Amino acid sequence: MLKVYFPHAKIAATAFVMCLAVLCLAGKSFSEPPAAAPAADTMNGYSMAQFRDFEKNWHLVTTRFRKDTGEMRITYANDIAWAALQKHSADYPDGAVFAKIGLMTQDDPAFTSSAVPSGARRYQFMVRDHKKHAETRGWGYAIFTPAGKPTYKKEDQDVQSLACSACHDLVSDRGYVFSQPMILAVAKEGDVMPAAPAPALQVSFTTDDGATLPQAAQKNLPANTAKVRRVHGPFEKHVFPGTMGEIRPTLIKEAITARLPAVLADDASALFAIAYINPDKAECTAAGGKKGVSVITVSTAGQGTDNNHMIKKMEYCEAGY
Ligand code: HEC
Question: In the prediction, which pLDDT does 187 show?
């Protein structure tokens, strides 16, 4: 099992006592030191407070946009992580930290084809400490609500860390870091922008009988489904509600290519995500008048109780197929 330590709280407390002694001896006045985050506000020993103002002081690495959820993501690196990125090194030293903000977007009422950020949804961090986080490949994962509260209860955090790590395993050759610095400029006139890095999530599927899926997933397949394409590999065992959202675009792609429902399902937690071609309307018109494929996704959303998860159904028009 993962152990959860709170060394920062301890170090901060010791440092505070030492400062106090030094300042008193020197007879100087001092302003209030920043209070250490209460243990309840930490995940893996990390708190939002300790990374305060990262968006002003760190390096902007890249932004990404999820077309299906309208979510914008902005990734930042501290100096140590940035130096490794610049060297194209996958060997991140201890102390490297990445932060990612997930933001909702909405149409700009003054110009509706342009979307603007409309508030943070969550903050995520990856902190490099080989020794402390040996079980999650040397990265400590932490996720917080916009108010700085850990998204998951203490007792669920070890499982969440493993779920974070299982997905980041897909990019083991990049030191478990997905983001690459975005290309903002071309070297000289006439140069073309180099292609974006290869698509991130490379998940393996096998063709399975629909009947082998957990009950909850089976019930949400289209009628008369015999075969499905099911995700196998690290995801199967280490999933958390967020995985079901992250995996959706990958499932959609597979469902369209294989012409079979594509599924990620976990027996233990009863979490699942399914994508299939809309049986009532195969074709659709996507943005810009492009021909597309109509796809339906059904997945568990949020954290239910006793494996009774909320089910979210959505319809997409996927262009480019
Ligand atoms: C199903 C896959 C998946 C899971 C699960 C996942 N991530 Fe990520 N993560 C990504 C992808 C893909 C990116 C690249 C940015 C983007 O597309 O949003 C990313 C980026 C990040 C980054 C920015 C650095 C980088 O690698 O690009 C941080 C920090 C991060 N994730 C933290 C977490 C934490 C904390 C958890 C668990 C609570 C988690 N992630 C779970 C897929 C995942």
Answer: 62
168 C-alpha vs ligand 1 centroid, how far in Å?
7
What one-character-per-residue DSSP string does 112-171 give?
Answer: EEEEEEEEEEEEEEEEE-TTTTGGGTTEEEEEE-TTS-BSS-GGGHHHHHHHHHHHHGGG
Q: Is-contact 50 69, C-beta < 8 A?
A: no
User: Which residue has the CA at smallest separation from atom 22 of ligand 1?
Assistant: 100
Domain positions in the chain are 7-174, 204-319
**pLDDT attached to residue 125:** 98
In words, the CATH class of domain 7-174 is alpha beta
- Put residue 196 in one of left, alpha, beta given phi > 0 → left and psi -120 to 50 → alpha: beta
| Cα–Cα distances in angstroms (integers) from residue 259 to residues 43, 209, 275, 282, in the given order | 41, 15, 10, 11
Give the pLDDT confidence score for residue 295 in this predicted structure: 92
Ligand 1 pocket mutation, candidates 100, 170, 172, 173, criterion most atoms within 8 A of CB: 100
Size of the chain, expressed as the number of residues it contains: 321
| Interval 81-126: pLDDT, tens | 999 999 989 999 999 999 999 999 999 989 988 999 999 999 999 9
> Which parts of the chain have pLDDT scores under 50?
1-34
What pLDDT is stored for residue 238 in this prediction? 75
Cβ atoms of 175 and 66 within 8 Å: the answer is no
